[in-house]
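Fold this: Sensor histidine kinase
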Amino acid sequence: MALTTSLAGRVRNTSLPKSHALLPLLEAVVNAIQAIDARFGDDTESGRLRITIHRSPQGTLDFSQTGPGRAALKPIVGFTVEDNGVGFTPENMTSFETLDSDHKADMGCRGVGRLLWLKAFDRVTIRSAYEDEAERLDGRQFRFSVQGEVELDPEAELPTEVGAAVSLDGFKKPYQQSALKSVEAIAREVFEHCIWYFLRPGGAPDIIVADDDEAVSLNSLLHDFVYDDLQRTSIDVKGERFDMVSLRLKSSPRNHAPRLYWCAANRVVLEENLTSKVPGLYGRLKDSDSSPFTYVCYLSSDFLDSHVRADRTAFDISEQVPGTPLIEDVSMDDIREGALKEVERILAGPLSAAREEGKARVHEFVSNRAPRYRPVLSRLEPLGVTVDPSIKDQELELLLHSNLQKLEASALAEGHAVLGQASSAPPEGYDDRLARYLNTVTDINQSDLAAYVSRRRAILDVLHRLIEVDDQGRYSREDAIHSLLMPMRTDSNEVGTDASNLWIIDERLAFHDYLASDKTLKSMPITGSDSTREPDLLASRLVGSPVLAADGATLPLPSIVVIEVKRPMRNDASEDKDPIQQCLEYVKRVRAGGVKTALGRPIPPTHEAPAFCYVLADLTKTMVDRCEYTSLRPTHDGMGYFGFNEPHKAYIEVVSFDRLVKAATERNRAFFDKLGLPSS
């Protein structure tokens, strides 16, 4: 009993991703090239192939491919592929009417190209002329569709020359919207898909892609984009031979990523970006003459021909074979690994130069912008950290940080392993292993310290900019400086210790029991006050307890620190707006309240707790008047005032912003110099 095949069912079950919207056209082009080969053999110069793009005469314009000075493109509704090949001979026609024909199986053809036509187009019209056995001109015209299948048109006017014209009409919307639009882009797609034919001895026939206004020759693309081909090589992967054709393409903004093309049946099936998959292979390379080029490779083999899927969009080859079976199958990973090793060998010279440029880029970045990585740089390079010389600072920072984390994780695991052996009899070589581990930890700790110092330098740079006048002649508001010192409306129970930068004022402020920023006295757990007044910054520290363990559990008397921040160059200090008096009032209110530790434990009442008041303000005339009124003494450099207020038992310091930045920079100068950071 004969089986019946449903064309509609076969088309429905044929896969065509929208990302391969032009694959039906490419199949028609390959068929036309094969027809030309069948007629002219090695005389490819006699072959002609023209691809005409048909656009809708009306309808919505497509602006996706346009730019300044370019007209909008109308939607594509179809294509016509014309060739002067052998034509639809009776043998070819019989093959066309046979699904899954093996007529051209030796060329890698699966007889599914015409199914892809109907997947993306409503109908196909074919007109062809051929020479019969008596060398007389004969021909046929027919339509091909899901509904009518093959419909001959016996009354059609036949071509006067041998060849064929395949018209793909009714481009279905999902594929139409996903397909490339411009003549140039479509020409490049056809060129890259069929480049195998251009690389073979004798080359490809003359191929033109055109619409009403523009035409592109694929042969000119070969000259415009290809410098030359490198040596043709082959690799062996588990007994299977794979041929590699390597090209140096002329670099352009559109053509800079190195690529590996997986080919089958003289067609490109997969395109893989090789960026960073070989150390030093990032975008463009330079040859011995320093001319930039992009590397591409075409990989082919009988193995790939026999394992390509029917729709030619992928291979029936596993990415990685799990386990170790008795007979190891070839996986995509196996093939890729072999190909990348060969690429590294072929490009040894340019890759070496690119790696040196990348290494210089890393050292320049670390030296000038990220000194925290300097202590561990020699340990990161052996991990295979290579970069594109044109990488942006932000991306390079992320890469180095990621690899530093890997180094830290490796050191942590090594530490557990090494120290776990300390309790038993140490094995041979233990001392050397322990020394290597401790050296790694030392470098990592130095990196952490470098990061901390670099952060301080950056914070001082920001503060310096905040106190300067802007382009409009205005100074920053005090809340900008306030937030830099510590986020506003928060306290130390809500933010971590790294959130504040009070070290700018006094290093001792880093060690506190409680710290509040722009919060009312009533909301602070340490005061017990009902006041709704808001000091800019208020801190307490337990006197006599170790500064690194001041968790509020012990109960010696606290010290009180109050900080007031004024807008740069503000000149409105008066008796009613006296920041010095405001600080002293806050101290008095805290002392008068039921003072508690940050953990809520009561502290015995006292009026003797040492208090420190800092006012950050420029020394305008009104501010100097308030300092003199409070009997403060000028500092030796004339950039601030200080003194002790006996009635309030408080040390008072008024610091100008210039003195604040200068003093903080001087305190950190030794660290900056050690890292090579500028002090100013």
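The mean pLDDT is 80. The chain is about 35% helix and 20% strand.
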